[in-house]
Amino acid sequence: MVEWLSDSHIWWLLIIGFSAGLMDAAVGGGGLLQIPGLFGALPQKTITPVVLGVNKFASACGTLVAAVQYTRRIPVPWAMLLPAAVLAFAFSYMGAHVVEYLPTAWMKPSILVILIIMAIYTFLKKDLGQVQRQSRLTRREYIIGLLMGALIGLYDGIFGPGTGSLLAFIFVRFFAFDFITATASSKVINLTTNFAALIFFIPHQYVVWHWAIPLAIANLSGGIIGTRLAMRGGSKLLRKGFIILLCIMIGKFGYDLL
């Protein structure tokens, strides 16, 4: 029998969910805030798969709301995104199942290096993601999009943190999207990888509903506000937020490694 949380822990859960949803919808990286927060808010005897299952359910709800809001207002390349999302879904599901057979010890150092490169490149290239693309995607870019969808899906299934930020950077760097279009596009693919993970977590009873539902409500509430702030601030605000987020992620990964 899973215990109920005290009022103080419920309030802490709601604050965590709202803050993570707002952060994730605006610039990504909500999991970096929500997962450590859950380890502190939930009972100490809670096993890690339950923490991850509760987090993934709430994140999926917040990402769904953000994706709907973004795509209603921001034109996105559906012809490339939908096939890429299908591949991301399939590879994320595969990643969740093969994770115990793969050596994951090297992943944090590798991701740390990637994050540092992303931060330096974004900081030095002032016009990165500031101009809205007018031309259509080429066939080569469609192929790159499908490949990236598969790789990001696999990464999210095996590891996970920073998936949305990696996607946004890929769309800005390799497809010349502005940050607002890149963020909207990343939500579509990130949503599918979240659902793929839930197909694994829910049947294995790793989602505790009386914890997950309040967290999800808070997460999607933060997502609504975060999306509106991002669209109001535009690509300039998102670029600054993206750089700050990368610095936070670099600090977090570096701290974990040390």
What's the mean pLDDT score?
A: 81
Helical percentage: over 70%
- Low-confidence stretches are none
- Give the helix tally: 9
Principal-axis shape equals globular
Tell me the fraction of residues in β-strands, as a range.
Answer: under 5%
Distance between the termini: 37 Å
What are the secondary-structure elements, in order, as H or E?
A: HHHHHHHHH
Largest sheet: none
Question: How many domain modules?
Answer: 1
Radius of gyration: 17 Å
Quickly give the structural class. mainly alpha
Number of strands: 0
What oligomeric state do these chains adopt? Answer: single chain
What does this structure look like?
The chain has 258 residues and is mainly alpha-helical. The chain has one domain (7-257). It has helices spanning 7-26, 30-41, 48-73, 78-98, 107-124, 139-158, 163-175, 179-201, 209-257. Helix 3 (48-73) crosses helix 9 (209-257), helix 4 (78-98) packs parallel to helix 6 (139-158) and helix 4 runs parallel beside helix 8. It is globular and about 55 Å long. The model has no long low-confidence stretch (mean pLDDT 81).
